[in-house]
Fold these 4 entries.
Entry 1:
Amino acid sequence: MALLGLGVLKPFRQQGIAKALMIRGLKFLKSRGMTEADLFVDNSNPARAAGLYLKLGFRTVRRILDYEKADG
């Protein structure tokens, strides 16, 4: 089972909605037998999602760097 995306519209941020959704989703998956969870987040996420995930008990285990060369 997988959760492929989670987001909160800008006008509704900073109200605990993302945290509540994450907690509810993780509890649901655990009730279905999940014992581990992986999470991927872009460090440049303007909503600072990485901070939320750290507060929920996730930890950074790997960072992936992508480089792109501009045309020209």
Note: Residues 37-65 form one domain.
Entry 2:
Amino acid sequence: MVINTNLAAQNSAQLLMGSSQMLSQSLARLSSGSKITSPADDSAGLAVSMKLTAQMSRIDGATNNVGNAISFNQTQDGYLQKVSDALNRMSELALLAQDVTKSDSDRGLYNQEFHTLATYINDVASKDFNGVSLFNGNTLNVTVDSDANTFAMKGIDLTSNTYHSMLADSVTSTTLATQGLTDIKAAINQLAADRASIGSNIESLTYYNDQLGTLKNNLSAANSRIMDVDVAQESTNYAKYNILVQTGTAMLAQANAMPQTVLKLLA
């Protein structure tokens, strides 16, 4: 039996230190809700989680971009619905002006409304969305994923001659009304194609938006498996390490008391 070196106490202290560290780690996990409270817990898992988190942030950005692009197209279509109403009325006026029972004075009244509507359509062509022209015909590339891939969103051109030529039309005579009707029918056909293009844009962008939502959910699930603590399992670990710390503390006290038995040999 020796006094200077108490191996039992040293071993007990080492085991107690390990149990205390595990208890502290378990407390940190339960209080934070995360399995990784420091890089030492799972360095590889932390690296993967950081990449997943960054990708999810980029997905949020892409989702906002796609959502704004959908709103852009919906705004375009809202204007084009009114342009369609104006063209329908203009075509009706062109037909009314060809009525042989109408006088030139009547046609003049029709022509006044005709030009007002043509001016309205020309004014719509200058509208913008947050400073971006709605109807200049430019194709816009919309970022649709976390890797910055883009979707070419076809533009609508209300400044084209098909729409603009109606400003020069007139219905002051049956001959002019006939030519005006021809131009209006061409504009209606172009408008139908333009609205179909907008519908195609919205449909494609909606698919991209749904895809981004699904991808983010899957990435969140993967990140959760790496980072989120299983409370039931960790509570069991906490109870185990708590018992080990209490037991280790008691055993260390016993180990420290062992050298005192030497006094009985000296008595």
Note: The beta strands are 128-129, 132-133, 140-143, 150-153.
Entry 3:
Amino acid sequence: MLPVCLTCGTQFGGPASECPICEDPRQFLPAEGQQWTTLEALRAGHRNAVRDEGELVGIGTEPPFAIGQRALLVPFGARNLLWDCVTLLDDKTAAAVAARGGLAAIAISHPHYYSAMVEWAHRFDCPVLLHEADREWVMRPDPAVEHWSGQTCELGEGLTLIRCGGHFAGGTVLHRAQGDGALLSGDIVQVVPDRSHVSFMYSYPNLIPLPEGSIRAIAAALAPFAYEAIYGAWWGTVIRRDGHAIVERSAERYIRALHAELP
């Protein structure tokens, strides 16, 4: 039974005494210290909800586990791409995904959502696509994990991975060109309660901002792409219209704030 960090949900490939992902300043260890569980134990007390999220299908664990993100099924030819990932995978979840066509690939925005990606890859016999700049954060190395390089990775079927950096060096978003376009952003671009803006951070739990250069790099990486919708990392974090303009003005507002020009 492979260990799973109780705080971030990452599954390790063998015995571990500490979680480098949680010891990094972008995450945290709780006051009581490092704690572990297993996928088997998680299955005993949790389930996955599989339900519509905007025009896509979301998968999220109930009650919430670790960071609490939900994954998204994105149509990809006859099958799907799983965007981001959750730790829990059980037979009921696998059957629900298979009924919707199964998975052709998994792509993940950054290490906080690596979770049990290898379990998912093995179950659906598909690769996990990660940016090479975040290679060091893979806690369960496996041949299913494939690292891509550069600033974009064209997947076909109107799907493109875009390296934005920021939150992590390899911080990635997924652009979907179909329809009016959508950006699946994890929390590389954070959907906030004010749906007229988004935000960006180096560390969300520890409230560490990004420098101006990182914000400009994110805006520049996204500038060539058209999209109306933005899908964040949690249930209900969806901006339905005007996404491209929202990102641009949010980047400008962030930079003004860094220069003490508060809104």
Note: The first helix runs from residue 20 to 23.
Entry 4:
Amino acid sequence: MNKLLDIVSLTKRYHNGQEEVAALSNVSLSIHEGDYCAIVGPSGAGKSTLLHIMGGLDIPTSGRVLFESEDIYRMSDAQRARWRNKAVGFVFQFYHLIEELSVEENILLTAKCEARKTSLKKIQELLKYLNLESRKNFFPSQLSGGEKQKVAIARALMNEPRIVFCDEPTGNLDKDSQDRVVNLLEELNRQKRKTIVLVTHNLELAKRAKRTILIKSGEVVNNPHGGLA
């Protein structure tokens, strides 16, 4: 598999009053194209911080994030925003859907500047794949939690990203909906070869990933693929 993302000696520190807190300390790992990787660890370990930095949402104190050998933090803010829109999809715990917009409109919001007809065709394909065709004119308040997360996944896939980052995507769902969402992520990885990086506190869900990376106190404790291998 081709190496897609390298994390090299990544450190992130915050200031809490006069106290300096290290959210991440010298983290190095790699993500290969086609990976399905689960990042696990206790609350406050730095999982979400790592995910947000990998996805270009938060700036590290030091270290590098290389996407196909290009350091995304040497890009300008505008360049990094374009990279995120083109190469990355995000799925969060709380969906972040706009209540006043329909399912179709929520997904269309993330479409790159292209012909509306092309965008709508792509949305129809996604809705069919996710079994949401009958819900396209529904509003978020009319959907179950699992359906809302499926819409969030469709939105993340709209621009055909190279990598999808999922931050506790099942944390707000009941057991049945959790299974449906994880089954969908596995299917996307297996059938559509999407590279997926999943942060979760749920070890049972993490076991279903191809790789598991354990983080404690901001440090990688267990990385089966070994650093930058």
Note: The chain has one domain: 35-60+86-222.
